[in-house]
Target: Ceramide kinase isoform X2
Amino acid sequence: MEKQPKPPPLLLLSSQLSFQNRVCEVTLNSAFLSWKEVETRPKRTSGNIYGPLKAGSHYVPVCEIISVQETEEDCPSTDTGKWQKVPQSVAESNQHAFTVSYVERTQKHRWRCSEVTLHCTDRTLCLQWVQAIREQLSLLTIRPKHLLVYINPYGGKHHGKRIYEQKVAPIFSRASISTDVIVTERANHARDHLKTEADLKKYDGVVCVGGDGMFSEIIHGLISRTQCDSGVDQDCSDEPLIPCSLRIGIIPAGSTDCICYATVGSNDPVTSALHIVVGDSQPMDVCSIHHNKTFLRYSVSLLGYGFYGDVLTDSERKRWMGPARYDISGVKTFLSHRYYEGTISFLPADENVGTPRDKLQCRSGCDICRLPSADKQVSKDEESVSDTETKGVWKVIRGKFLAINAACMSCACPRSPKGLSPSAHLADGTADLILVRKCSRFDFLRHLLRHTNKDDQFDHPFVEVYRVRQFRFTPRYEDTDSELDLRETEGSGRKRFFSQICREHPACSCSLAHSSWNCDGEILPHAAIQVRVHCQLIKLFARGIEEQSVFEEPYAFSAI
Ligand SMILES: CCCCCCCCCCCCC/C=C/[C@@H](O)[C@H](CO)NC(=O)CCCCCCCCCCCCCCC
Ligand SMILES: Nc1ncnc2c1ncn2[C@@H]1O[C@H](COP(=O)(O)OP(=O)(O)OP(=O)(O)O)[C@@H](O)[C@H]1O
Ligand SMILES: [Ca+2]
Model:
């Protein structure tokens, strides 16, 4: 079917108002608020008494207006004298004003709250403008009105509470968003509250102030609650999960903040607050992890065995160091250079979702994430997921690995601005499985270094990467384990003896020891796991990383 052209925006109001003592033609239509200087000054003859005139237009999309308020002012703002003088009559008559707060884009995907104050000749006109803009805002029903906020006071550098109170709460209050705020008192407080207690019908969304670990608590609470309310058994790995209806906002206040960074493009609390206010919505894939028939956890960012599992295990003992713990443990783990043997089986994704080696990256409005995926069709047809997925052919890889990483999204973060898998998609129903085989320390360092620059970290003979819908991992000594366990109960204690030697002796190449899985910053209790990606199981108050061109559009930066 041919696409119908969009009808032009409806003109709602147009007046001559004054802005910084200059007369402007101000227009409100159903899409934009705009103001453009009207040339009232005399033509320049000689000299530079008036300075250069840069007549320009400002366009603010209605969907990026945060609020409008009548401004209480005795007189209009004074002229700076830099530009032309406004006729006295204009200045004297503009005693009434209103202020519009709106989103302004700055560098590196950051948003700021900007303001324009427009002066009117009489109060009736001023109120007419305020009302017209408010009416347009009230049509934006995707915007949240009431939010449930959880603050982890101990995430990152322990600044969560201050960040929320000083940077976020004022923006919410300006946007007339009401909140119920819970400062957590223990780990899993937020998860348990969401799972069993919170009256979710009251809210339009949940806000998480903290890092990836805190976000993980929130999704565990919300997903479990949704499955429980719908009678879905999370232990049953074949059953499709029910998507959560509430959106989640992340105010970054952690150590890695990779979920925020990879969905917004920055780890800036004000930017995140503004994405919540405008009511953005970004669906996201979630991996479910099972051990045999038991549900273990969900993951949205990194699921890493070997290197990242060992970094996390070591760093948990150094929590007091704050974010620096990861660097210290990273160097220590790098030097220990441990590898692990095991078998990975995986179900590759269809070709239409691209490959991890694509140059194309997931950005706002990503076409790949809009494609109907196998998973989405499943829920529509009420067919069981396993029926559809067994049509694919499982691949099996056995070997010795320094790292096995699964990334449901890019995992971009300040440490690695393009992420572990730069072309992974937020909402395509797949994860990128990265296998780093045993190699020299020097080669592994070259691979790690490429996480921090523009070079391709997969372009090494010891690195393989696959886009998958499901995978399983079995450590090589899984079976032997039970034998060792038996022997241990018989009194030999050999298993403990072996793993101590392997973990504590850096040069040891004995691969009897297991690593642990780092699941979004939490350690999993089992090495043998089964993983399935659930397409678009949750939604965030985000829009994906915006293309740079958005910043160059005329309405963003044009100066009046
Ligand atoms: C030479 C420099 C190489 C730098 C390589 C940096 C790669 C960084 C990749 C970060 C990927 C983060 C993925 C997200 C994981 C989160 O769900 C999780 C919870 O927040 N964070 C971590 O597990 C936190 C994981 C943090 C890992 C930090 C690893 C640092 C390695 C340093 C190795 C240095 C070798 C130097 C040899 C002299
Ligand atoms: N009140 C609390 N006391 C102790 N721990 C808490 C509390 N509230 C939450 N937590 C736990 O703190 C852990 C870390 O929190 P968070 O993710 O916010 O910071 P981080 O680990 O420094 O950052 P990142 O996860 O981004 O690396 C989470 O696993 C969470 O369960
Ligand atoms: Ca994905």
About this structure: The chain has a mean pLDDT of 85. The first helix runs from residue 88 to 93. Residues 211-212, 256, 258, 301-302, 308, 311-312, 326-327, 330-331, 334, 411, 413, 415-416, 420, 445, 448-449, 451-452, 518, 520-521 surround 16C (ligand 1) (CB under 6 Å).
